[in-house]
Structures
1.
Amino acid sequence: MANRGRPRKLTSVIKAQKLINKYFQDCKINDEPITYCGYALALGFSKRDTVAEYIARNDDLSGPIAAGAMRVQKYYESLLSKAGCNGAIFALKNYGWRDKQEHDVTTQGQPINRLEIQVASTEARDSLYEAVNNAIKDD
């Protein structure tokens, strides 16, 4: 079966790792911030989504590219302890991070079962209705 689509920009793990190392080294030497787009450009990609596409392929190149992407996230994470870190928060949210807490204290992730009460007679229904109303009034 013939390969379809455009040829891959990166085919060598060694070349990819050299480009990754060079990007982070250049950022350090030039005192430039580490960015996801900068990382993608250093790998020779014209779109930042290409980084995720290479990681999703789950082949030999996925590991080094994923590790580099984690280094970018680590950089953003390190900025959280500094004042004015809104840009880092925004960037991390784009990686799927959340800054809200979700608590499920009643169902532990399970759907809530609906309680159905069937009353055998009108008198029983009225008695139940009166008991519920009295309980509410007592609170």
Note: The longest helix spans residues 62-79.
2.
Amino acid sequence: MFFIQICIIITVKRKKDDFSTIFRTGSLFFYTPDFFFLLFFFLFRIVKVSKSRFGSSNSTGKGEIFTLGTHHKIFYNNHEKKFLPLLYEYIYRKGALFMGIKYKNVADQLRTEILEQDTYLKSKKLPTEQELMQRYRVSRQTIRQALSLLFEEGLIIKKQGSGTYLSDRAISPARTSGSIAILTPFAGDATFPAMLWDIQTILSDSDFQTRVFSTENRFDRERNILQSLLEMPPRGILAVGTHTAFPNPNLDLYRRLLALGTSIVFFGSGYPDLPEVPLLSPDEFSGGYRITSHLIRSHHTKIAGIFRRDDRRGLLRWYGCACALRDHSLLSCDRDFFWYETDQTGNLSDPFDPSALSSFLDEILPRCTAVICQDDEAAYFLIRELLRRGIRIPDDISVTGFDNSYFSDISPVRITTLSTGSVKLWVQAAKLLLLSINGKAASEPQPVWQLEEKDSVLNIPVHL
């Protein structure tokens, strides 16, 4: 039947040009292999053309009527050599569909010429719309759609009456840089080597070299690093923010790097005043709420906390904790929460010098049965100090952490904590950065906290 349909169409009035004329009224895609796909699809799936009652035609004197499918009829005009109106409308719409695909192909070729082949680097100007139409054999609308896509990506700018030019981002040294900068508060952190290995493994597959910078969690240090990067902008930056609980005076430098074409992704902790930069992080508020709710379900009613005041994650985790206590009518006094800054980590994490925690522990131990810590590292050293005091974990007091880092397993008592499952934030951030570098808009789903029950939480028995 398929071959019969082809023969019927081709032999209508014994003029092949009549049918092809319809296609030539569409777009230039009919001169490409897309035409053969459309012809096959149109004949095999849509059009069942037969003369009325398999051979008898209904002549009108001006032409003949053919059946399209079972419900529609098409008039074939001998003089205008067109099927009207349904076939032409179908072809036109299919042409628009394929043109929608074609403008992306044109944009891809222009993007390659701009970023990889330096075709327009000397003149800094793209050809006119008419020249692009002739080169790619497409319509003006297709060219304008392709240019609009490049404009949205920040690769070109349009000057009224003058033409289309490369943007600063397109001609920035960053676009040809083969390096990725990694900014971390503490390059000497115990978890950093494994993190760096994962990141380098992903980036090296795309032929990028990494440069590591430690901000030491200081604004002045961060600014010096960003200023040095401006002299030779890297292709991308992976960063953990500095003092993210406070307004950052260095956002102007981040924005200058963005304008020069450097892609930036934060992971773990970023800057809320820099919304144009993606941040890969779980919902810290929900994490605080969830770990507190777990303790409440374990019948703990007096819960204390240790949080970092200069880290936005610490504020949000505390807020989730406080809201969970409030919702269960258990909100305690402010003295049950100990706040420390990153600079004080040396004191906090030194089990032989517990001065930073001693007064706090003296205050809460008589009445509290659980402590929620900023992260597993803080929980680890807290447990060490509590054991030194002769306090049993979890029989006398329960301790929880965040992040499910290796501290939770090497602790004398394995720490109940929250994790993001199999998702490693730095791995997902590196992948997201590569997508951004390649001009592909993408967003990673927000990681979800999962409870990792270990040995540091006691389920308090309830006596009826």
Note: Residues 86-115 form the longest helix (30 residues).
